[in-house]
Amino acid sequence: xxxxxxxxxxxxxxxxxxxxxxxxxxxxxxxxxxxxxxxxxxxxxxxxxxxxxxxxxxxxxxxxxxxxxxxxxxxxxxxxxxxxxxxxxxxxxxxxxxxxxxxxxxxxxxxxxxxxxxxxxxxxxxxxxxxxxxxxxxxxxxxxxxxxxxxxxx
Length: 154
Hints:
The chain is α/β, with parallel strands linked by helices. Helices cover 42% and strands 21% of the residues. Helix 5 links the parallel strand 5 and strand 6.
């Protein structure tokens, strides 16, 4: 598939997700970086979004809980270019009943070439980057061009 260039805006839409065993870590991370996060639009899966909003006062657009479809909702928002960055504190030591949804979410983040942080240190590095508050060019699949070159046969 051919590629195209597209900008990630200076004001980013950031998805915040955490497995149960990592919710406290993500909550503490959001409190630590409240000033930076307040400059962007935040999305969160159900329980995580409520927790962050309640403890930090940051406004979070809340989706369904991850196992109830929230991971898939975020994946759709990534594919539709509505989410520009994913902070997903996942628990590598705990089995999750929705592991296929988690894998699909991470795959979509890779396909659509958005920055992903899976732990506190990588999330710190992303937020401290000078590119965090500037427009950033990315390469992604040119799906529209791909569709335009396909013949429809019935």
